[in-house]
Amino acid sequence: MPELPEVEVTKRALIPHIEGRTIEKLEIRETRLRWPIRVDLLKKIENEIVISLSRRGKYIFINTAPGTAMIHLGMSGSIGVLDQFVPPKKHDHFDIHLANKKIIRFNDPRRFGCFIWAGKQPEKHQLINHLGVEPLEKDFQGEYLYRLSRNRKTTIKAFIMNASVVVGVGNIYANESLFLSGIHPKRRANNIGKKRYQNLAQTIKSILTKSIEMGGTTLRNFSFTYGKEKIGYFKHNLFVYSRDGKGCEACGSLIKRIVLSGRGTFYCGKCQR
Ligand SMILES: [Zn+2]
User: Fold this and answer.
1) What 3-state class would DSSP assign to 144?
2) From the CA of 84, how far away is ligand 1's center (Å)?
3) What pLDDT is attached to residue 123?
4) Any catalytic annotation for residue 263?
5) Which CATH number applies to 4-124?
6) Which one is catalytic: 12, 34, 43, 263?
7) Catalytic member of 58, 105, 152, 157
8) Domain boundaries, the chain
């Protein structure tokens, strides 16, 4: 599943192709994504200039004067920039035609992605308005996690994966950042001190930043598969994720796997307390 770094990398890769350009028309081949594509509403971006491209959580915002259209990559979505005459492949559900004869093409075999009209105040849209802070912004700090966690008896892993607390800490990043912070994933959120939260927040920032720099992980089948702007995705150097039964890089103990909130959870019982 594309995680925040992949979405951020996709956004950055698209910016030079789409910002400041005019959208000529939309070509929708399949409306049945996670939510039905409302062609009648999205048509408002036709003949408009893209003022900017931005990201909130895992949504990419295409900002135009009449309002914002949002794209989510779901479980298996990818976006490419192609010449307009390239015939669509299977699962190429829609194209955004630009006036310069290029198209932004969306492919999604599992159709959990979406293309949604969010109007003039996208931050108030129901898919956005409950989202917590952005992990790479200044307001995401250990102090913030500490304050918010005082009455939370949930596990620390569920706490940092809760999008209303902080967005974009997916399962891989939660596992890895807890290992690097030495925090046991089952520890209760309200049972962790300020200093450890400061360490954890910095670790989350640094892991996400590194992953964005490396072009995201290649886990699952996310790829910027189209066009000439191919990005080299590297597999992030994973310490615990999917390494159960292997030796911990720090102490040599075997990495364990449990299931927490339905998600595979990997940790070193010696390094994480
Ligand atoms: Zn260890």
Assistant:
1) helix
2) 52
3) 97
4) yes
5) 3.20.190.10
6) 263
7) 58
8) 4-124, 142-267
